[in-house]
User: Which sequence fits this backbone?
């Protein structure tokens, strides 16, 4: 009988805590971060086809190796 | 290192978005306008200075990185990678103690020609260095260990990188180069010897990498302690490591390496680079607790009395001779059997080395004649004759 009484509480506990996102920990750091949001940044920078249309080549074409 | 294409340089992967850093909103680190149309015309608005766009957030690591990585950022702000203090201090040595940053022309010249070798957090852990035009190395995923090819030797490439990978094998003048560095062939990354503490610093403001914290500087004996064993059966190690006249390990175990005269600043001795193998007196012997040998390999560095003339500043290298131009070197092309240690077919065990003293010891006759007096005076502590 005691087990049956505990079941609703267990269910509520699981609902409350099992879906908590890890990002909460980071968002709390110093208050400088915001939660992830869908934006034009993500929409563009994850779309290679679009980037190939809008990204401009570097004047010198990119480097090879340094001097050290 | 193959350059990244224009799209690859800024492409962000799903893996990044699912990573810890990917949980942050883009604008948290990069600012900018996140609500622009996906068109070429709108790109400028998204990345405008007016929208507080920040291309390289980790350049302000105390703002963007320290919330989670304060144990590192608190030390890194004084590290040589970040401050380039080694450059400024070595300049002072040859410029009568004058600081190049006090002259606007010199400061501008440094900014144009040399400042790109500065490294913030991102240039080792998320993008390629600015000196090779940056670009996201792994589609924005952060990584703990920098890539040997695309991070470390992207800056330290023309000497360390080429020597470590054996790039000179088969080239004229490099006939003694038979293999890449044995550590490279065994798959070791730079970080195997140059640990994070060395890269990030310890919070102290050092002025010169060659005399910095001895705890950070990799020593061959960290792994090869057997050469210090008094009971070693290796007579070479008994004589030249434990004996009265000691040699830096590289003297016997390095292959031919590169010296440079002129550099990208513009002036200097003609002839940009050339193969060398020169043993000099260890002029650093009494300056640190770990560079204690009597002799060491030296290489010519790209410096001449007129190196900075193109910058048009008022500071000259008035004390040019205060430091050698044949500088203490640690070539990264180590092999057990080199043209000095391989005794196959020789009459006696030291023939390869002692029989080639004229060729391998740095002498006054080895210096470039363009700046003969300056070179002779600067290298007086290094010459073996």
Assistant:
């Amino acid at each position: 009988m005691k087990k049956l009484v505990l079941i609703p509480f267990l269910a509520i506990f699981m609902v409350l805590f099992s879906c908590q996102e890890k990002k909460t920990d980071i968002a709390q750091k110093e208050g400088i971060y915001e939660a992830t949001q869908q934006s034009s940044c993500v929409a563009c920078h994850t779309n290679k086809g679009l980037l190939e249309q809008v990204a401009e080549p570097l004047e010198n074409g990119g480097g090879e190796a340094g001097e050290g | 290192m193959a350059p990244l294409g224009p799209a690859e340089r800024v492409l962000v992967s799903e893996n990044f978005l699912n990573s810890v850093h990917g949980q942050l909103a883009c604008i948290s680190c990069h600012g900018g306008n996140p609500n622009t149309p996906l068109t070429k015309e709108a790109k400028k608005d998204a990345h405008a200075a007016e929208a507080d766009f920040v291309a390289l957030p980790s350049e302000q690591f105390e703002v963007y990185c320290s919330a989670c990585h304060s144990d590192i950022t608190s030390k890194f702000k004084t590290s040589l990678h970040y401050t380039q203090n080694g450059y400024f201090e070595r300049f002072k040595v040859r410029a009568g103690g004058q600081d190049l940053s006090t002259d606007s022309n010199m400061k501008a010249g440094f900014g144009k020609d040399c400042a790109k070798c500065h490294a913030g957090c991102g240039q080792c852990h998320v993008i390629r260095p600015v000196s090779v035009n940056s670009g996201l190395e792994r589609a924005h995923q952060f990584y703990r260990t920098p890539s040997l090819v695309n991070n470390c030797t992207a800056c330290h490439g023309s000497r360390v990188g080429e020597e470590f990978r054996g790039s000179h094998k088969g080239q004229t003048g490099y006939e003694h180069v038979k293999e890449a560095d044995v550590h490279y062939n065994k798959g070791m990354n730079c970080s195997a010897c140059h640990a994070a503490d060395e890269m990030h610093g310890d919070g102290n403001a050092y002025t010169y990498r060659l005399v910095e914290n001895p705890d950070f500087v990799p020593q061959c004996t960290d792994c090869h302690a057997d050469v210090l064993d008094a009971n070693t059966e290796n007579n070479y190690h008994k004589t030249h490591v434990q004996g009265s006249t000691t040699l830096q390990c590289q003297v016997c175990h390095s292959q031919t390496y590169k010296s440079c005269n002129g550099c990208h600043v513009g002036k200097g001795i003609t002839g940009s680079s050339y193969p060398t193998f020169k043993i000099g007196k260890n002029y650093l012997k009494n300056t640190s607790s770990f560079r204690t040998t009597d002799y060491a390999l030296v290489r010519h560095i790209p410096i001449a009395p007129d190196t900075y003339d193109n910058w048009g500043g008022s500071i000259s290298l008035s004390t040019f001779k205060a430091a050698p131009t044949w500088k203490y070197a640690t070539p990264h092309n180590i092999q057990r059997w080199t043209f000095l240690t391989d005794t196959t077919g020789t009459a006696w065990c030291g023939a390869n080395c002692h029989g080639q003293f004229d060729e391998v010891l740095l002498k006054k006759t080895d210096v470039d004649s363009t700046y003969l007096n300056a070179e002779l005076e600067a290298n007086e502590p290094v010459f073996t004759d």
